[in-house]
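Technical note accompanying the year-one report. For the benefit of new consortium partners, we illustrate the data format agreed upon in the data management plan: each record pairs a sequence with a structure-token string. No post-processing was applied to the example shown here.
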Amino acid sequence: MRVRLVTGSRSLTPQQETGCKRILFESGDADVVIHGACGWNADDPKTWTEARLNGVDALADRWGRWMQAQVWRVPAAWDTCEKAGPMRNAGMGGMVANLRMAGYTILPTLAFPVKGGRGTQHCMRICEVNKIEVVAHEWLGGGWEIAA
């Protein structure tokens, strides 16, 4: 099975969203899509709906369902810990590393950081520590470009 982690900003401009969708759909198929389930109350399983997701996680969720992939949502447990975001990112990186050891094919993580977004940068560092390839797309005002 092919696994792809997607990370990025929770708030995108309409232009950034359009470009991100294009990159996701052009990136090829995956059997499992993993994302951080960011959004308004997105970590509450009692009231969760896809409408509560926003930003890159919402796009990754729609893309995964469109491909009929398994979509693994990994929300941060903000109600139990103030460091929930970094803990969630570490968990996602560890999850992908464990899947690799179990024989899954790990596709490069797709990252869409925007200026000032610490969570995406942290998730990218976690991937690098776990030796998971990251393809970072940098917003240059007119479109996403693969960062050097």
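Partners are asked to follow this layout when depositing records. The two ends are 29 Å apart (CA to CA).
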